[in-house]
Structure formats: structure tokens, C-alpha cells
Amino acid sequence: MLTQSTLWRSGQDGYHTYRIPALAVTTAGTVLAFCEGRRDSRHDHGDINLLVRRSEDNGESWSEPRIAVAGGGETAGNPAPVVDRMTGRIWLPFVRNDPLGTLERVLRRESWRRPYMTFSDDDGRTWANPIDVKDQVMEPAWTWYAFGPGHSIQLASGRLLIPCDHTPRSGRSRAEVPMRSHVVYSDDSGATWHIGAAAADGTDESIAVELDDGTLYLNCRNELDTKRRFATRSTDGGQTFGPSEIDQALIEPRCQASALRLDDAPGGGTWVVFSNPASTVRERMTVRYSADGARTWSAGRLLHAGPSAYSDLCRLPDGHLGCLYESGDDAPYERLTWARFDPAWLAEPDD
User: Which of 52, 67, 176, 308 suits 36 as a labelling partner, its CA being 20 to 30 A distant?
Assistant: First the structure.
């Protein structure tokens, strides 16, 4: 019920490292797998392209990688794709920064980092010239900015909603300036974008799920020293959030994670499915589910016991789930692994 394969292996095809997976399923049923192709090093800055592979058979086979966004010697990263069900357009939010754009340099305004979007109207084969959306989605005082990474969502209302994070001001170091998760949204199929609400200080990279009662659930990386995930909820589509609370069941090593809503779950009802390295270090890529709106969680099934880090989840047209995640034998960034499994597998005891 579980099959796994390597979609990208570091050191191949002229790239030092492949990182930061993201997934989308188009209205035509095509699965799109995105990642950063890092030319020269594992660093988050440098000469980095956004790459995409396509699958038209539920992730059984894949096209050759193509460049969705060329860095041009700069960094193009943090893919956070979302498919507009009403138009079929695939939006790809991403960020650019200069090749020396470390978080610390951006905080001190010695480097720049800006949000952009591109889109595809031909099922992910080609991508439009990037659009600078800084003035729409970024306050002037903010310094660091990131979309996702991982998939964004469309709410039942039609609203396109992108999980993000930012630092609210400049400063000397990451320890001095708090990170905050927030959301941005569009109610006109991407013609205009707006800043939504933010979570508490200490939240970071985030993933959003619309629960079956319409509540927006935002699950966030925790930059505080608790080794557990933050979560917050909104009843107005991301205009406001309630308290940010630590979820003691979701252990993490300060790392990105993914989540999605699964309707028609095994046994009936709706699940929230969640993936992350379930440890205090980057290892043990685990997928678990909640049958009560992300209040409690299953023990989880292990995809990879060794080093692992970022991941993204999708629901495939044939009903299976897909997970694209960073993994390795000696380090988490040796390859991007594609896992495909039946949701019922999650309810079975781990081996």
C-alpha cells in the first residue's frame, strides 16, 4: 500500500542540492511536483531555480524536470502553489532574494527579499512572467518574507489563501526580531491580493487547512524552544485568528510541515492528514491523521526513519495520497522522495 521513489537526487543535472518540495493537483488531474534546484550549495541563498515535474497518471510516472522560474543568478524559492478550481489557473507564489540574502542580512536591510507570483494556464507546462506583488502582500516595515512553502489552498467560498511568514521589522539578528506566520488571500481569482491575519510571535513557516465546519486551521513551525507545533484557528477565512496554541502531540525539530483535509476518509468522515519529521532532530518522516478537526492525532506511520526534513502532501485523483519529502541516509537533503499510499494505510499499525 506504500510505494516510494526518488524524484530528484542531489548532485545530478547540474544542481548541488534539491530542496523545498511543494505539490499541486490541477483541474485536469495532473500532479505537479515543485522544488528548488540549488546550483552551488545547500544554502538557502545563491543561484537557485524553481523546478517542476508533471505526472498525468497519479504519480506513477513523471516528466523530466523543467524550470518554472529561473533565478538568473539570484534566488527563486519557497514555492506555494494553489489551483483555482473556477478558472483552472495554477498560481505559483514564490520569493526572490539576492544571492547573499541570508535571513540575518535581510533583517539588517543589507540584502533584499521580495514576494512574486507566476501562473500557468496550460496545466503546468509553461509559466507566465513573474508579477511583483510586494506592494499588495508586504507591509513596508517588514524585512524577511516567505510564502509557504508547500501547497496553498482555495476555500469553499472561492478565496485563494496562501500561508506565509514574515519578520515585522528590521533588527540585528533572528533572536532579536520575532517571526510570525500570516496569510494572504484573493477573492477575485488572483487579480488582487490582500494581507490577512497573523499568528503569535514565534510562529514561522505554516500550512493551512479548511475544516469541514468552515474553520481555517493554520499549523505553524515553532521558533520557540518547545519542540512542538503551534496551531491557530480562524472562523472568518483568515481575517482574524484566535490564540496560537502549542499542540503537544505534534513533536518537531523546528522544521516545515504539511497538512491537508481528506474527505471520505476510511470508515467515513473527514480527516486532517499531517506530515513532518516527528522528532526533536530532522529525522523520522511521519504521516498521521486526525478524525476530530486537528484536536487529537493518530500515532502515525513512518515513511523514512533516517534523516528527513521538509515535505508536502496532496490527494491524488485516484484517491491515494502523495507525499514529496526531503530525505537521506547521512543528511536530510540527499534526495526528494515521492511516496504514494492508500489513506487506509494510515490507520494500520506501524511495522
Answer: 176
